[in-house]
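Chapter review. Work through the record for Glycosyltransferase before attempting the end-of-chapter questions.
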Amino acid sequence: MTTNPSDVRLSTVVMAHPRRQAAARALAEAHPALAARIVTDPEPQGPPSALRTARRAWQSVSAGATHHLVLQDDALLSPGFAETVAALAAARPRDSVSLFTEWGSRTANAVRAAALLGHAWAPVVDDYLPSVALVLPAELALGFEEYAAAKAAPDATDDVTLLDYLHSVDKVVPVAGPVDHANPPSLVGNDVMGPRSAACLAPDGDPGGSLLPAMRAVPYFCWWEQLAVVYLRDPASADGWRRVPAEEALLERGLGREQVVASLRTALETLPHRDVVHDRVSDVLLAEVWTTAYALGVVTGDLGGFPDLGRPAARAALSTLAPGALRRVVPVRWLAAVGELLYPLVSAAVLSGAADAEAVRS
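Structure tokens for Glycosyltransferase:
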């Protein structure tokens, strides 16, 4: 079901801690078409809690609104954002629409798979709901406070509580994301995660396009442990996903470690600026990044096609895979360059994985 963008009546708030009120005000003033109001932490002297502010933010729906947008104060919005968000909400009027997903998340690889196959939307596959910039139907927005008051633990986070609240609602992200993240110092201890930038920043997407089919396997680079893993759909697991080493998941597909590593060695022989890459990223980490991208190529066949790297969104999405993976171990000043330097390796891995999986299937 879709509706006309002109029928979307959007209510918007920026949620902020008082220490970030200036940033929230600047964000609202930079996008006057949103008519955004600022909602601040009701207990600013208490322990840091995004949930406390989020509960107030989701209550603050304007009368007559069809949809409610909550922006965190460190969101960076693309030009023409008000028109973009209206079109996106109109395309998925009953869904939870996350306008930002960070480059190292599970959902980022759902976005990459969707981009490779020409879809406009990807499902959320994280164990939290991306909520730096989130749109909900007004009725759902208003119901969050009652749920959080009854169900949320005192130390719960807003993104996990939102995911639990919206368990029966379709949760999606546009492949062409219109929001980035400013990465200021975190108030809730997230600096240890490294920079969290957009998986695919491209405001000119097609809101009327298709949604990537449900994923049974999600390749993922665990940036805490610097390992390639795969999340497999498993109803018996607590959050519906079971994590296994990528090597194990690939072996179950008939793709042994030696085959995966052999294709990496071949790709490294032709990688531009190899000496610069090796000065920035160890061979151990290169192998894990390669394996993650290789597994991403493998699962595209499950989802209905062979990856097309000629799509602009595909290049944008793949170029963030390496920086999103390595943001804790590569200095920030080198991340953008590392993303460009490793793009040929990432793209070669995706194509190798897709081709090898296709050969096994045939």
